[in-house]
Amino acid sequence: MPRPVAMVTGPTSGIGREFARQLAAKGHDLVLVSRDADRLAEVAAELRERYDAGSEIIAADLADRTDLARVEARLAGSERPVDLLVNNAGTGQKRPFLENSVEEEQRMLDVLVTAVLRLSHAALVPMVARGSGAIINVSSLAGYLPRGTYSAAKAYVTSLSEWADLTYRDSGVRVMALLPGLTRTEFHQRLGVNRQAPRWMWLVAERVVREALTDLDKGKRISVPTRRYKMLAGVSKYTRGSLGSLRRYLRLSRK
Length: 255
Prior knowledge:
The chain is an alpha/beta fold. The protein has helices at 14-25, 37-51, 65-76, 102-130, 148-168, 186-191, 205-218, 227-237, 244-253; strands at residues 5-9, 29-34, 55-59, 84-87, 133-138, 173-178, 222-223. 51% of the residues lie in helices and 13% in strands.
């Protein structure tokens, strides 16, 4: 019996690499998508050695429409169809909105929103036709807070995922948004967040992914890892207009 196939974008570090590892351990072959061909080859070799998992490599910049089209074509193809798509690739801005060029902001939007939209569309068409498949869109709790264009992009991803799951679940296709909190990855290191957040807020990628895959199996539409972040999500989701309640919650949680 052929192994199921999962595509993971941004699999060379952090949450994406952990998705690739855990899915390989569960018996999936992988389609790995990232800009860095050398690091993709490294991940593919690790998955082959540890789990006997086959890996296809697509070196692509998801902010480049030509590269993105190649990834869309792989999702739409009928040969070795993708059973699970994990839209994980991410980027962010260190500086406030007006200190970035509009081109820098557009690039972030292209990766966080446009790529997720187009890859989800490309995957959903054959999945719905087959009557099976799943998509995990890695969003963020930041989408529940008014914190600039990154939060706005993640709010879009969460909303798109909820709508798609409501729409296509009856066709046999699941779509779930994963909303992690702060997770120790290269992403946060590059943005310099490590110096700003208390230790209790940090998660490890292994747990984030393990809980996400469990939640997908349970049929959840939104996955928020750990009890403390579930509580934090409830506070932040319903206090978007004011961060005062969230700040009070954070102070109480540290006592």
